[in-house]
Design goal:
The structure holds two protein chains of two kinds. By secondary structure, chain A is mostly helical. Chain A has four helices and no strands. Chain A has a single domain, classed as ACP-like (Non-ribosomal Peptide Synthetase Peptidyl Carrier Protein, Chain A, Orthogonal Bundle). Chain A has helices at about 5-20, 40-55, 60-65, 70-80. The radius of gyration of chain A is 12 Å and the shape is globular. Chain B has helices at about 25-35, 35-40, 50-60, 115-130, 145-155, 175-185; strands at about 10, 15-20, 65-75, 75-85, 100-105, 135-145, 160-165, 165-175. By secondary structure, chain B is α+β, with helices and mostly antiparallel strands. Chain B has a domain at about 10-135: Gcn5-related N-acetyltransferase (GNAT) (Aminopeptidase). An eight-stranded mixed β-sheet of chain B has the order 1-2-3-4-5-6-8-7, with helices on both faces. Classes of the chains: A mainly alpha, B alpha+beta. Chains A and B meet through α2 and α3 of A and α4 and α5 of B.
């Protein structure tokens, strides 16, 4: 696994922690939106804005709406050439 | 208010908002009675299909100025929205009359709850209210414990008016909405 991929995992973790105001221990690939109180529509909006800024991408609105879990988020980011 | 019913379908922000029909009632009832929706409504009792049908008849025959939309995303039903223009409190026979118009909305489909789709719906509805109906300001009343809805409204430009007896009253002025909308459109690019 390259350093870049490790780094992207950590960057993604940091964005989720910051946008959802939760600790790293809560973040795993299976974490789904609306499964925790902190992940509501407003947090989702903040999450998207921070992901786009962190990885310097602009996501399609349908991809944003489809981003239903941390794992799904990684899948979608791969479409924008962010490797995990 | 004059007859404004011709504006019955809105296509915006990837969503279609169309006037509800009798065929939508069972779906609306299912969402409305689900704990996730019901626990955040001002009236939290479980309602029956008969009551739902009576409500539908009342909006079709009595509250003709109100707008009730079912919401579609990718040709599937995902939620509900309404706009009730101001009603004269003194003269209106409806005891729940109010001085300013009020909106209401929810994403009922579980798959999409807690996503930015709720913002797409709010933008579609508020564009309609401010651009088509040309309202200057509107109000919202939400349960004080529903912090997600309060944060959501604040992001749309609503300002807090009061907290009384478990209810939070908020107000949205046209200028504040368009300022907030510009911010939101940096993320919701459609």
């Amino acid at each position: 696994m390259s350093n870049e991929i490790l780094n992207n995992d950590q960057r993604l973790m940091d964005v989720f922690c910051n946008a959802l105001s939760v600790s790293e221990t809560m973040i795993n690939d299976d974490l789904e939106y609306n499964s925790i109180q902190q992940w509501d529509s407003t947090a989702h909006m903040a999450l998207v804005a921070q992901l786009e800024a962190e990885f310097d991408i602009m996501m399609d609105i349908d991809d944003i709406i489809d981003m239903s879990s941390v794992g799904k988020c990684k899948e979608i980011l791969k479409k924008y050439n962010v490797e995990f | 208010m004059n007859n404004i019913r011709p504006f019955q379908e809105i296509n915006a922000y990837r969503l279609k908002l169309r006037a509800i029909t009798e065929n939508d009632l069972e779906q609306l009832l299912f969402w409305r009675n689900s704990p996730e929706i019901r626990n955040n409504m001002l009236s939290q009792n479980i309602i029956t299909l008969e009551e739902q049908k009576k409500w539908f008849q009342s909006i079709m025959n009595e509250h003709l100025d109100d707008f009730h939309f079912i919401v579609e995303y990718k040709e599937s039903l995902v939620g509900y929205a309404n706009y009730k223009p101001a009603k004269n409190i003194i003269h209106d026979s409806d005891s729940q009359g109010y001085e300013k118009g009020q909106t209401g909305l929810y994403i009922g489909e579980k798959k999409y709850r807690g996503t930015v789709l709720a913002y797409c719906l709010a933008l579609a509805l508020l564009d309609f209210v401010f651009l088509e109906l040309n309202e200057k300001e509107i109000d919202a009343v939400v349960l004080e414990h529903n912090q997600a809805a309060i944060r959501f409204n604040e992001k749309l430009g609503y300002k807090m008016l009061s907290n009384e007896e478990g209810l939070t009253s908020m107000n949205l002025k046209r200028a504040n909405y368009f300022e907030a909308k510009n911010e939101l459109l940096k993320t919701i690019r459609v």
